[in-house]
């Protein structure tokens, strides 16, 4: 059962004419619109913010399928907890015809898009207690050039789930599975991986606008 589903139309790759927001079915949230930032000169290198014990990847680092990178997690809002988390992308596969049809039924704007399911595995390396927090919103799909792609937000879909940090993840080294849904249009660059944008870190050298996100490519 899907609780909510939406697509933030970014205008990446080939254009679509149906980028106006519209009301989705009862089980879906209204789509949101966003635009990709204009290209700008690369910012100067910024050191990663202080984190829990453990090495973290340098901003802009890129790895392949099944390869891990560690990053500094900081809780959002008024939180001050810090941890080091390891993550790897374990698969990047096209959605099946049935899965695509289901998503199109939830989000009509997806018709004509190629949907890709990007699956991640996270483990906690060290740091403060972070159970029941999360950072899956810090991951976005990227295309073959490493540029931010089209994100499809789906809540409550068993075929591609996102999860908050469990107690077992926080204290017992359990692996936590995450899934990101990306979409590409005919004639545009295909979805080929994910980026991690630094989340709530401040300063944030991994920011997609002012820094260099971590890349996980197939």
Automatic annotation (TrEMBL):
Record field: compositional bias (Acidic residues): 32-44
Protein name: Uncharacterized protein
Low complexity composition bias: residue spans: 21-31
Region Disordered, residue ranges: 10-61
Source organism of the structure: Pengzhenrongella frigida
């Amino acid at each position: 059962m899907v609780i909510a589903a939406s697509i933030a139309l970014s205008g990446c790759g080939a254009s679509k004419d149906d980028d106006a927001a519209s009301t989705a079915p009862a089980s879906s949230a209204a789509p949101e619109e966003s635009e990709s930032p204009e290209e700008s000169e690369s910012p100067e290198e910024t050191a990663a913010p202080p984190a829990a014990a453990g090495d973290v990847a340098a901003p802009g680092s890129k790895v392949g399928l099944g390869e891990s990178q560690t990053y500094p997690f900081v809780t959002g809002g008024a939180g001050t907890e810090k941890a080091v988390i390891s993550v790897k992308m374990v698969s990047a596969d096209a959605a099946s015809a049935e899965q695509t049809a289901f998503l199109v039924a939830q989000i009509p704007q997806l018709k004509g898009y190629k949907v890709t399911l990007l699956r991640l595995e996270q483990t906690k390396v060290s740091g403060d207690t972070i159970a029941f927090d999360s950072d899956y919103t810090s991951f976005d799909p990227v295309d073959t050039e490493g540029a931010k792609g089209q994100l499809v937000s789906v809540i409550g879909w068993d075929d591609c789930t996102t999860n908050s940090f469990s107690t077992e993840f926080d204290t017992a080294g359990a692996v936590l599975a995450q899934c990101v849904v990306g979409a590409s249009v005919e004639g545009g660059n295909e979805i080929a991986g994910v980026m991690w944008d630094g989340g709530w870190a401040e300063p944030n050298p991994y920011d997609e606008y002012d820094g260099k996100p971590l890349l996980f490519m197939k």
